Amino acid sequence: MREEQMLKNILKIVLPFALGIAILWWMYRGTDWSDFWHNVCHEMNWGWMLFSLIFGILPQVFRALRWRQTLAPMGENARVRTSIDSIFVSYAASLVVPRIGEVMRCSTLKRMDGVSFSKSLGTVVTERIVDMLVMALFTLVALLTQLPTFVNFMETTGTSLDSILNRFTGTGYIVTLICGITVVITLGILFWRYKMFKKGKDILLEVKAGILSLRNVDRVWLYLFYSLGIWVCYYLHFYLAFFSFDLTAGIPPMYGLLMFCVGTYAVLVPTPNGAGPWHFAVKTTIVIFFADAVMAGQLAQDYVEAQAIMIALVIHTIETALVVLLGAYGWADLNFIKRKDKEQNN
């Protein structure tokens, strides 16, 4: 039994990494890596890139502040500092084991501030529902404003029904396979959570209390501001980074929103920070945007594809590095707070 559990834990770490590495290898197998470093060191506008990173920090801060709001009605008072640090650490942890951050941040508040694990986990469920609604709104706006482009994306990647039926090979096969894996894993996670919540009536009741806590949140307008602000900042974090490169600096905001939505759904595939699926989604949407310029002879297809694949890699690498740095800071600060609390208690 213990060996089976150990095997499951190993697979939870190895499989996401293996999937991400396989997709990245497939995409970048012919890449000249000297071009990557040339882009980073000489061609990229670091001013725009650093500016975009501000909007990579704000969503995590907003998420922590929103979390405290939902915990307060249940009598759970978490400190602002430990809440923010726990969010930083949870995002970094999810790079190693996808989705583990949700559990880790709840256990961190339990350890640091004595917050009920079950109640905090219940509020995380509430957060996910709210996030899904906001993301659905963003997707609706993107579809209404960029519907022809979205249809073109589906056909190009082979995920439209006709493409799947007539040509189930190559890129279409890979994308469809990824989507299938995502569905299976998502269902597995939901089933696992359901089993976990069934272990005790008390746990279920506390989780329910966390979900219903939204009804008693003080200053609902502030909760809604945080919820919308999280995703607006995510979008700006994504979109402003493209101003760092000459090729993508002219992409309009609404097309950038479409790219953001496609990239966000790609991250649902359980690889470290969406590595692989995210690169593919962003690269494809960039290529589609410049399709007319390629057909008119203004840009070469090979040039656009090479630049798109490089831009996706640079942006994802830098944004992932930010998550790692914030996680390291959060971990160090939590340890500092813990030592300080121990000194005060003594």
Description:
- The structure is a single chain.
- With 346 residues, this protein is mainly α.
- It has one domain.
- The chain has 14 helices and no strands.
- Helix 2 packs across helix 14 and helix 3 runs antiparallel to helix 10.
- It is a multi-pass membrane protein.
- Keywords: Cell membrane, Membrane, Transmembrane, Transmembrane helix.
- It is found in: Cell membrane.
Q: Into how many domains do the coordinates divide?
A: 1
Q: Which of globular, elongated, flat, extended, rod-shaped describes the shape? A: globular
**For the residues shown, what is the average pLDDT?**
80
Largest sheet: none
User: What is the number of E strands?
Assistant: 0
Question: Mind telling me the C-alpha Rg?
Answer: 22 Å
- The ordered string of helix (H) and strand (E) elements is HHHHHHHHHHHHHH
Question: Unreliable stretches, pLDDT < 50, 5 or more residues?
Answer: none
Determine the number of helices (DSSP H or I, runs of at least 4 residues).
14
Strand content: under 5%
Q: How far apart, in Å, are the first and last alpha carbons?
A: 42 Å
Q: What structural category characterises the helix and strand content?
A: mainly alpha
Helix residue percentage:
over 70%
InterPro entries: L-PG_synthase/AglD
Membrane topology: Multi-pass membrane protein
Transmembrane segments: 9-28, 48-65, 129-151, 171-192, 220-243, 249-268, 280-300, 306-332
Keywords: Cell membrane, Membrane, Transmembrane, Transmembrane helix
